[in-house]
């Protein structure tokens, strides 16, 4: 249909009459025969059928039509018996229900009042049964329910000492015992959220969230004192715990621009990660955090105070029944998107860690001493350390880059090895460079953490984090990062912590204090991720590890400093998502540490074989 017909929808007969009258008497008699330009001849190369309805510019004046003025009285009004043309709905979220669609509460994929898709204030079921509650909840209050089941089966071999007081194996007089261990754990996460806010782009006015977590676990070892300090407890341990991982109120303070740049405050137990990869601090402490955006969300900021909560020893969850730790964190950071190039985000961060746990002693649930650690004279200590860092995440053209750089500066009031105060001066850097080739991503990893050359001087130069959980070089599929390797014969401390990359010589990563007298680390690695199908992803990682300086290891083991080479960490993993979503995820991985000269000297690995880790993990999410 032509544009003129859309603008002037005259009946076909009237249109013909108008054209005939304008064409003159002769044309009227001939009907609507197209006019032929008799004064100008068409070019010979122009087909004759192009004459129909064609006029060249300047041939004649274009047709004009002026419609008569509209008469509203000629427009008929609606008939009283006419059926309603629109369907009433309680609010704009329930259009699908008004059309007859019914989605069960067990369906997490479609609109569901339990998943925060629909407001609860105008819900017909709530109005009918609880009218007072519905009246108090305005149409922009939402409820969000999340349930996650995390099932873990893990087998590993670690350096394990023979029980100091007794052993279950007659004639076991060696320093190192049998190191095979297994763990089975079931964790259920229940997330409950109440949110006020009715748009996608506007931040919520209020948010209240409560996340209890239920854990049951069982660990089996081959040596006594591997699972509990008391050798009478045997070689197995069954435990359970209920932790509170989130319990906060979030209040929207104000909008500062037409595009909803904002300021908000959050108070309570809340998650916080200091950088993109979790190198320095990743935890769910109690705190007060101010956060917001500026310049059309190109700037984001955080200002906060946090106090760390005590952890349950065997599950790693918050233990809200215990007194909070005397460990305060003051945090300030800022993110800038598209800096220095579009597609790359830069972050500057500053954290001050004020630890005042220099009084008394703390034993964990298994009976082992956590604070102070079994290091040196085992005397309690205080320390204050500030971290200054830069982090980046994004891409430069086709190359992806994630990088972190930190400097640690502070003072340890009295280190148990040196027996004196020490100035903390340490550094850390890590980077991952990767590139995507269709369905394959190739990665290069590098990490360097400074070590301490002299544990008895007035300087502590070994870098340590606050509470790390690095997503780097294979993360928990890597043996070195996943497993806590004890420093057998060097006191009741670990060479490295579980889900940590730094060899920080702490009693534990979760419950111990930071230690800046440690051997440091150098890691160089390669890796690949392959999306074999939309449901199946495979990954592989190879990392070479080396200590920066082993003087402190020689002091603790009362021997010559061992060689700096740790060895090769080899790992492979698969992830299967049968529904191409995060609702059902099956992870499996295997890793081994092929010992280098230094690990062989520390653990007599020549005759014991490599340390290994095998994981199977099933995640179910509603």
Please tell me about this protein's structure.
The structure is a single chain. With 622 residues, the chain is mainly beta. Helices cover 9% and strands 40% of the residues. The chain has 8 helices and 24 strands. The chain has helices at 3-7, 12-29, 95-98, 124-129, 131-136, 479-482, 551-557, 597-603; strands at 115-119, 141-157, 180-196, 206-220, 236-255, 262-269, 272-273, 282-283, 286-294, 299-307, 327-336, 344-355, 362-363, 369-371, 383-396, 399-415, 420-437, 440-449, 459-460, 521-531, 536-546, 565-576, 584-595, 611-621. The strands form 3 sheets. The protein has an 18-stranded antiparallel β-barrel. It has a two-stranded antiparallel sheet with strand order 7-8. A hairpin with a 2-residue loop joins β15 (383-396) and β16 (399-415). The radius of gyration is 36 Å and the shape is elongated. It starts with a helix and ends with a strand. Mean pLDDT is 86; it is low at 1-53.
Please summarize what this structure is:
This protein has 622 residues and is mainly beta. 9% of the residues lie in helices and 40% in strands.
Task: Give the CA-based shape.
Answer: elongated
Average residue-wise pLDDT: 86
Structure annotation, total helices: 8
Query: Roughly what percent helix?
Result: under 10%
Low-confidence stretches: 1-53
Gap from first CA to last CA: 52 Å
What can be said about the biggest beta sheet?
18 strands, antiparallel, barrel
Rg, alpha carbons = 36 Å
Care to count the β-strands? 24
* Fraction of residues in β-strands: 35-45%
Structural class: mainly beta
